[in-house]
Amino acid sequence: MPYPTIDDLPDSLRAHLPLHAQEIFRAAFNNAWARYQALPPDALEERAHRIAWAAVKRRYRKAGDAWVPRGDAWG
């Protein structure tokens, strides 16, 4: 189901992603959720999560245990 606020994201995301990355995840997830409503519920949730993570990974990368902004052309 869509996330109304950042506080509604899973604890694991809020604990590890910077605030801006959380905002990206939430927006991408909610947009994907709205776009792919015709999918079965399990497939819809999986698709929305994949799209949201892809959006985060376009702007952030994992450096050790931390997510940091990309310094390349995508960032």
What does this structure look like?
This protein has a single domain (14-69), classed as Orthogonal Bundle (Rna Polymerase Sigma Factor, Chain: A), CATH 1.10.1740.70. Helices cover 56% and strands 11% of the residues. The chain has three helices and two strands; from the N terminus they run H-H-H-E-E. The protein has helices spanning 11-16, 19-35, 41-59; strands spanning 60-63, 66-69. The chain has a two-stranded antiparallel ribbon with strand order 1-2. The N and C termini lie far apart (28 Å).
* Whole-number tally of structural domains: 1
How many helical elements? 3
Question: What composes the largest sheet?
Answer: 2 strands, antiparallel
Low-pLDDT runs of 5+ residues are: none
Name the CATH class. Answer: Mainly Alpha
Radius of gyration based on Cα positions: 13 Å
Task: Record the strand order, biggest sheet.
Answer: 1-2
Strand-pairing-aware structural class: mainly alpha
Query: Which range best describes the helical content: under 10%, 10-25%, 25-40%, 40-55%, 55-70% or over 70%?
Result: 55-70%
CATH topology: Rna Polymerase Sigma Factor, Chain: A
Shape: globular
CATH-defined architecture: Orthogonal Bundle
Percentage of residues in DSSP E strands: 5-15%
The whole-number mean of residue pLDDT values reads 94
The beta-strand count equals 2
What's the order of the H and E elements?
HHHEE
Supply the CATH superfamily name: ChaB
Distance between the termini: 28 Å
Sum this structure up briefly.
This protein is mainly alpha-helical and 75 residues long.
